[in-house]
Amino acid sequence: SIQGTDKGQYDYIGMGDSFASGEGADNYKEGTDTDDNRCHLSLDSFPYLLGQNLGYNTYESVACSGAIVDDVISQSDSYNGQTKLEINQKERDKNSIYPYFTPGELSQIHFKDEYIPKNITVSIGG
Q1: Rounded to whole angstroms, how far apart are CA atoms 98 and 3?
Q2: Is 119 strand, coil or helix?
Q3: Closest C-alpha among 60, 40, 39, 41 to residue 50
Q4: How far apart are CA 124 and CA 126, in angstroms?
Q5: Most buried of 19, 39, 50, 82 (most Cβ within 10 A)?
Q6: Residue 28 above 50 pLDDT?
Q7: 112 CB contacts (<8 Å, ≥6 apart)?
């Protein structure tokens, strides 16, 4: 997908848990298989495959292994994310998170609010 695209210009964003993130599929997005961030977002997961197969120009995923409903929809400033750093989302540097679609640091709904995609999918509670 294209990095740096403006608000409202994303065709699709995938959100959700390990089913959506492609847990076990390997080929993990850079930064999602580290000691601090174990989201395991595979570039072979269904959101990326769906974006490719539908011919979308701009698509991304912020799905994260182990996500629960709160990880997808929390608006609370005190939400700590899924990383081991446990910094609440109010204090995180969103300018270093949004452009890279880094999962696990903010609740996933923030990416929907930031980019206003034309389409989203959500998988949670598998």
Answers
A1: 10
A2: strand
A3: 60
A4: 6
A5: 39
A6: yes
A7: 13, 15, 120
* DSSP letter for each residue of 5-67: PPTT--SEEEEESHHHHTTTS--BPTTSSSSS-----BTTSHHHHHHHHTT-SSEEE---TT-
pLDDT digits 0-9 by tens, 68-77: 999 999 999 9
- The two three-digit tokens of residue 3, written as one number: 């990095």
For 85-104, what is each residue's pLDDT tens digit? 889 999 999 999 999 999 99
Reduced to 3 states (helix: H, G, I; strand: E, B; else coil), residue 42 is strand
Residue 98 tokens, joined: 């949004």
Task: Count Cα neighbours of 72 within 13 Å in the Cβ-side half-sphere.
Answer: 21
